[in-house]
Amino acid sequence: MNTLYYQAKFVLSAPDLKSTPLDTGREVAFAGRSNAGKSSALNTLTNQKSLARISKTPGRTQLLNFFTLNEEQRFVDLPGYGYAKVPVAVKKKWQLLMETYLSERQSLYGIILVMDIRHPLTEFDMQMIEWCTYSKKPLHILLTKADKLNYGAAKNTLLAVQRELAELEMPVTLQLFSALKKMGVDEIHQRLDEWFQEPEAPEET
Ligand code: GDP
Q1: Alpha-carbon distance 38 to 25, whole Å?
Q2: CB atoms near residue 178 (< 10 Å)
Q3: What is the mean pLDDT of residues 38-61?
């Protein structure tokens, strides 16, 4: 058990890159379409009841919400957008914020993408995956609400998504998760441990 994640504390919400904490150390960002189960996943893996509530506070839903683990390590809760009926202006603003953050943030090490196991690989998810590929950031996918399916069906979805993403030229890992059943917590802790502890990759030549 790694209790580092239990120490997560909200620091600030940023509307743009200028307002973010210093771009040093290492951070892991959490992405997911609204209602995918991202807040529940964040609360579960930090063992806190309402850590991610801040990200749902009106006015903060379209911001980058930062949480510190220690001086050098952070989580970032990225804004999701909802279903198809989002005003174009909101979608554009979101796209610009995401693109800038994902391409320019030096301390961003990897992205955890949370998908409802019953609705994987939505348009939102594909956009995030495309950006991760473009910015060459490792991606770890949580297929959450796994308790909604029986184990066989959940495993089949995992394999189907894995096959779908096998062609990508970047490291993608995925796992089953359930906030309700606290399933998959050790697995995501392990992935985070690796990301936070891995030495910097050498520059490409
Ligand atoms: P977010 O919008 O992505 O942050 O989603 P939330 O974490 O707020 O979850 C959306 C809804 O799904 C809420 O009603 C949660 O109670 C429910 N939910 C989230 N995770 C799970 C899970 O693992 N299992 C089940 N059965 N429901 C979940």
Answers
A1: 23
A2: 23
A3: 89
- pTM of the predicted model, to two decimals? 0.94
State the distance from the centre of ligand 1 to the C-alpha of 84, rounded, in angstroms.
19
pLDDT, greater one: 204 or 131: 131
Tell me the per-residue pLDDT of 177-196, one tens digit each, with 9 for 90 and over.
Answer: 999 999 999 999 999 999 99
The protein residue whose alpha carbon is closest to atom 27 in ligand 1 is 145
The burial class, CB within 10 Å (0-12 / 13-18 / 19+), for 133 is middle
Q: Is the CB of 148 under 6 A from ligand 1?
A: yes
C-alpha 190/C-alpha 142 separation (Å) is 13
Distances (CA, A) of 37 to 20, 62, 95, 161: 24, 17, 21, 18
Tell me which residue of 143, 149, 64 sits closest to 107, measured CA to CA: 64
Residues 71-109: tens digit of each pLDDT: 999 999 999 876 567 788 888 888 899 999 999 999 999
79 lines ligand 1 (CB under 6 A): no
CA distance 26 to 84: 33
